[in-house]
Amino acid sequence: MPMDEPLALILNNVGKHVNLTPAEKNIFTAMLQPKQLKRKQHWVASGDICRHSAFVISGCLRGYTVDNNGYEHVLSFAPRDWWMADMYSLLTHQPGNLNIEALEDTEILMLPKSSQEDLYQQVPKFERVFRILAEKSLVAYQQRLIDNLSLPAAERYDRFCKRYPTLIYHLPQKQIASYIGVTPEFFSKMRKGL
């Protein structure tokens, strides 16, 4: 994919929140680092310090944890045109608990945390961009927690379908089952009944 297509995608994403001048766009795009991930390759592993935010150009990332019994718990997905990071680690500079893995060959643009701080100084509009992204993320996580505590699995699946409409038929069923908090077997039976 030519570099101008990824830049157009990320600039369009940012443009939903602020209008940038050509000079501001150049400052921002000069800070971005492209990275290719192979299917099942980890971008961040539990215990790492997350030093970048990632914007997905193509492919899909998943963020998950592994409990003491070895079970994976999917917290989020980032398809094309979404941002992802281990926010705890990124903001505290401490080792994180999140694994971020490519579910397929994936292309991302990384924004280093150190560059993000410089970006706020050079182009203060980006504080608004990342505040809005953080607020949306917080709202989504809170709603997801409430859903997991109070909704039956079928309704959690319905909310998943609304949140990630492009992934419904794209992801392996076991990934969706993990996200909504059920076993793959239960998920398969539930889908047949819907």
Automatic annotation (TrEMBL):
Q: Residues of the signal sequence?
A: none
Tell me the organism: Mucilaginibacter terrae
Q: Which Pfam families match?
A: cNMP_binding (PF00027)
Identify the domain of life. Bacteria
Output this protein's name.
CRP-like cAMP-binding protein
Q: Where is the Cyclic nucleotide-binding domain?
A: 35-122
Q: Where are the transmembrane segments?
A: none
| CDD domains, sorted | CAP_ED
